[in-house]
Amino acid sequence: MAIEGPLRELGIHDVFQLLDLSRKTGTLTVTSQLRDNEGVVLFENGKVISASIKSNPHRIGDLLVRSGRLTDADLAMVREAQAKGDRRRFGEILVGLGLVTSREMERQMRLQIEAVVFELMSWSEGHFRFTEGMSEDALRDASAPLGTESLLMEGARRIDEWSRIADRVPNLSVIPDLAPGDADHPALLDLLPQEWKVLAMIDGQTDLRSIAATLSMSEFDVARIVYGMVSTGVVLLRQPTRASVPVALPSEPRKSVHQTPMGTPPSALRRGAEFFRAGRLEDGIATWSAFVESTPKYPAASALREAVVGATKLVEVLEREVPRER
């Protein structure tokens, strides 16, 4: 027997709790005419094992290819194995072939599920329908079960956090770009490794959702990091349409110096080069390292790695032989 109704009568949070407490196995479909969107969540004994959404339909295999962790040939090989009767789940085949580690696979699956569940939790309008049971094909792309209660708690926390950052990061479609630098007063960046990775991906063309997918980071974490960069004037944001203007900037909008012709090196490489030329070796090393790690298939990646190693050795020698004055 199906369970269904409008979200205005039974909120999505309550629907998840109901399925969790009754240990249901089946498929929850949530639709919103207002958003022209639909989400599908699979439950096994009340726990979430898979989730997808119409507005961002990439399957886990496609996401792994986009992030450089799988090749198209790897993905085709796994799909062929499933077509020939391999009954293991998608992630189990990948791990069995040594293409990804079990830890990485679990992380990727969790990121995908969280992104969908947290999106659905923000819906107050729409209709839900739960049907018991599911096909073997549906189970093939499923992950290890995730606790529904922990997902709901984290989702509630993130919704609160989103309300705080939404004034400057209104959605995941905005495109970040580096703010023009001040040659007379260069900014000193003190960033964590994850923040360097995000900064290295900012090129004035890629939106936040794509950056998160490429780095295999949660969309929420990328938005939070970019919010901090916007607040400090390091990054500007613009809407994806030509007519839009940068949003919620700390100072008057200026044209980004990184809107350059085709064939120009990525902005992360140029920014790293600026650091090196200014003698800021640590910042240059961090920027190029983050870029190479996030885009391992960049044509000059090998040469960049060698340059980073050389620069790192130079810094080590300088610190050892000519220590900085305290």
Structure in words:
This protein has 326 residues and is of the alpha+beta class. The chain has 2 domains: 163 residues, no CATH class; 147 residues, no CATH class. It is 48% helix and 12% strand. β3 and β4 form a beta hairpin. α5 packs across α7 and α12 runs antiparallel to α13. The chain is globular. About 7% of the residues have low confidence.
Index terms:
326 residues; 2 domains; five-stranded antiparallel beta sheet; two-stranded antiparallel sheet; 7 strands; globular; PatA-like_N; DUF4388 domain-containing protein; T2SS_E_N_sf
- What would you call the shape? globular
Largest sheet geometry: 5 strands, antiparallel
**Fraction of residues in helix:** 40-55%
Cα(first) to Cα(last) distance is: 73 Å
Percent strand: 5-15%
The helix/strand series, from N terminus to C terminus, equals: EHEEEHHHHEHHEHHHEHHH
Q: Give me the Rg, rounded.
A: 23 Å
Organism: Pseudogemmatithrix spongiicola
Domain PatA-like N-terminal: 4-163
Protein name: DUF4388 domain-containing protein
